[in-house]
Amino acid sequence: MKNFRILVFTTGFAKAQELNSADVPGNLNDAFKKEYPKATNAEWKKELDHYKVEFDLDRRDHEVWYNASGNMLKKEQEITEVELPQVVRSIIKSKYAGYRVDDVEMVWKNKVKTYEVELEKGQDEKHIIFDEKGKVLNERNH
Fold first, then answer.
1. Given 40, 73, 106, which residue is the final one in a domain?
2. Degrees (nearest 5) of the Cα angle 136, 137, 140?
3. Which of 29, 83, 97, 132, CA to CA, is 20 to 30 A from 103?
4. How many C-alpha atoms does 120 have within 13 Å on its Cβ side?
5. pLDDT tens by residue, 65-101
6. What confidence tens digit (pLDDT) does each residue in 6-23 have?
7. pTM here?
């Protein structure tokens, strides 16, 4: 029982900590405002050794991760199925016939762009990561 209490207690610290704008380091806020001056509804979180901001821009959801120095580590942008590269749409149509595209995000990490696609067919759900050329990098069933 003691181990269980310690696990529950420490698990709470592993989760993201929500931050008020005033609590975000100035260099991060400056980098964010410079890159996304028209962003709205920004919500900051501290996650272990980095910071994450979720926001809206042009009526789309965005998420950006920064390190403490203000360098962008990763960014995700919600896109539509039509905005996927044609090669990715063709692979979805042929390899995943009968599935409906539920959610699409364009992700930039380490200067590499990928596409995260959630597909649904009845109760079956798939989460697939494609590179820009349509290669499946990862596929998980949910």
1. 73
2. 85
3. 29
4. 6
5. 999 998 999 999 999 999 999 999 999 999 999 999 9
6. 444 444 445 679 998 888
7. 0.82
